[in-house]
Amino acid sequence: MSLPTDPVANLAALIRCPSVTPSEGGALAALEAMLKPLGAEVRRPVFSEPGEADVENLYARVGTKPPHLMFAGHTDVVPPGDEDAWTHPPFAAQIADGWMFGRGAVDMKGGIACFVAALARYAEQHGAPEGSVSFLITGDEEGPAVNGTEKLLAWAAAAGERWDAALVGEPTCIEALGDMIKTGRRGSLSGRITVTGRQGHVAYPHRADNPIPGLLALASALIAEPFDEGTASFQPSNLEITSIDVGNPAVNVIPGRASAAFNIRFNDRWNAETLKAEIVRRLERAADEARRRFGRAAPLVYELEWRERPSPVFLTRDEKLISALSASIEEVTGRKPELSTSGGTSDARFIKNYCPVVEFGLVGQTMHMVDERVALGDLETLTRIYLRFLEDWF
Predict the structure, then answer these.
(1) At what angle do helices 376-393 and 109-126 cross, to 10 degrees?
(2) Which is catalytic among the residues 6, 24, 56, 76?
(3) Is 141 a catalytic residue?
(4) Furthest CA-CA distance within the chain
C-alpha cells in the first residue's frame, strides 16, 4: 500500500471536497484514507449543541507510546463567494503556473496535506516514531467553533488521551514561508452598548429624547485613551467600534434606540474579567459626564451586553517545542522565524489548556480571498520543514 508522501496530491484530494462549514463534504473521509496506510486508528465523532448545526470531527493516532505530539487543524472552509469571479473553480484543485488554486489551499488544507506527507516520509525513512502522533481535526473552525476543537479535546481527554505538545498548521507566514511562528494569541472580547431614548419628530425635539448623542459619548469614551502600551510579548491592546446602528431609515424621525458594537484584542496585562471592569468604569464615567454636558437631570441610562464567549490571551514558553520548530525552519529555508503573537484568534486557544502549543504553516496572503492559492514549491518546502521537525522532536 503506497503512503501519502506527495503533499500536492494530498491537497488536491482535500480541496476537491466542498467542506464549507459545517459540512464535512468528504474532506474527513479523504483524510482518513490518507492516514489509514500509516497505521492510524481513526475516529470521527459528531458533536451537537442546541441551536447549532451538528459537526463531524476527526481524531487519529499513530503509535501508543509517549512522547505524544498532536497536529491540529481544520478541514472546513469559508464559502467561495461568487464562483464566476474565480480564475479556476474553487473546488477543482487546478494547477496553473506553479500554483494550486482552491478554497482551503492555504487555510488550512495545505498545512494538513503537508503534515500528512511529512509523517509518511518519516515512516518511509525511519519507521514508526519513538512515540505517538495524533491528528485533531475539526469541521467547525471557520464557524461558531462550538461543536469542534473544544469538544473534541474534551472527548479525547476523557478517553485517556494526553499530549506533550501540539502544532497547529494554520497559515502563519506573512511574506515568505518560514518567516513567522505564532507562539501565542491575544485575547478577544466583544460587547454591545445600547442607549434607549424616546422616538419623535425632529421638528419637536422637546417631545423626544435622542439616544444618539449619548451613545456617541459612550463609544468615544471606550477609545479615548489607550488601554496599555503593550508588553514584552504582545502589542498594545486595541478596541475597535465595529458598528453603530439606529434602525432608522427616515431623516425626519428621532430614533428610539441606538446601539454600538465593539471588539477588543487584548494582551497579557488583562484577562476577560479585569477588562470588563475597565470597560464598565469608562462607560460609567462617560455616562455621568454626558448627564452634565447635555443638562440631563438623570444619568444617561445604557445597557451593556457581552457578546459570544471571550477568547483568553495565552503565550507558549515551551523551549523544546519552539526550538525544534525554529531550527527546522532555519535549516530548510535559511530564515530565522519571528516569534509572534499577532493576528486573530485560533483553535490554539482551546489546545493551550491541555499542552504547550505553537502554530506554523503556509503563507496566508490569499486566505479567504477569491483565487485562494498556494505555490507548489511551498507545499514541498513545508513538508520538508515538518519532516525535519518530527526528526528533531522525537
Answers:
(1) 50
(2) 76
(3) yes
(4) 83
Is residue 86 packed enough to be buried (19+ CB in 10 Å), middle (13-18) or exposed (0-12)?
Answer: buried
Is residue 132 within 8 Å of 61, Cβ to Cβ?
Answer: yes
The x, y and z cell numbers of residue 284, run together, are 460609567
Q: What is the DSSP string of 32-56?
A: HHHHGGGT-EEE--EEEETTEEEEE
Collapsing DSSP to helix, strand or coil, 316 comes out as coil
Helices marked H in 3-96 — which ranges? 7-15, 27-35
**What DSSP state is assigned to residue 236?**
P
Catalytic, 6? Answer: no
- What predicted TM-score, i.e. pTM, was given to this entire model? 0.90
DSSP code, position 385: H
Residue 362 C-alpha cell reads as 503556509
Out of 107, 141, 142, 268, the active site residue is: 141
Residue-wise pLDDT for 320-355, tens only, equals 999 999 999 999 999 999 999 998 889 999 999 999
